[in-house]
Specification:
By secondary structure, the protein is mainly α. Helices cover about 75% and strands about 0% of the residues. The relative contact order is 0.12. GO terms for molecular function: DNA-binding transcription factor activity; transcription cis-regulatory region binding. Keywords: DNA-binding, Transcription, Transcription regulation. This is TetR family transcriptional regulator.
């Protein structure tokens, strides 16, 4: 792909993330094109259907979260890294959930999702599990907590997280971290 084509694709995905986060399924490809400052034809050249655009946006977002989890895993303090990851995932969780809710219904075995989406979900879950296990090994997290437990807690916190209202959510994250035995 040419450099300008790759730049346009990235602008479309960034705009799609913002539009879908704000409007869900009602987010239009026309609004995405407008925000990306490209023509609607450019959007459809990169993503022939709205579903293709939704999937690519979800994959890009999950990859970004996975990269952040892996970056934090390199921290010399696994407890601090896990606490930072929890805060990051809570603050970005609403967008992630909105994007995943736009995907077709699927079973636990990934049936119904495209291979790239399934791979991105699996990589994200693996990075979350690794961060938790690293904190547990260091004695900085409850040994009986599972990645599934953490995922449920993250979803619950993300549902109540409202941009600009960090005080109450930060307190709730602190309480959850205390319950998980993770130092703040």
């Amino acid at each position: 792909m040419r450099r300008d084509g790759a730049a346009n694709r990235e602008r479309v995905l960034l705009a799609a993330e913002q539009v879908f986060a704000a409007s869900g399924a009602a987010g239009s490809t026309e609004e995405i094109a407008r925000q990306a400052q490209v023509s609607i034809a450019t959007v459809f050249r990169h993503f022939p259907t709205k579903q293709d655009l939704i999937e690519a946006t979800a994959v890009r977002y999950l990859e970004k979260l996975t990269d952040e989890a892996r970056r934090l895993a390199d921290d010399t303090d696994p407890g601090r890294a896990f606490a930072s990851l929890m805060r990051t995932l809570v603050s970005t969780g609403a967008v992630k959930m909105t994007l995943l809710d736009l995907l077709p219904p699927h079973s636990d075995d990934g049936d119904g999702l495209s291979q790239p989406v399934t791979a991105a979900v699996d990589a994200f879950r693996g990075a979350l599990r690794s961060a938790l296990e690293r904190a547990q090994t260091a004695g900085a997290a409850r040994p009986d907590a599972t990645a599934d437990d953490v995922s449920v807690l993250l979803r619950a916190l993300a549902h109540v997280a409202t941009p600009g209202e960090d005080g109450g959510v930060e307190r709730a994250v602190g309480i959850v971290l205390d319950g998980l035995g993770v130092p703040r």
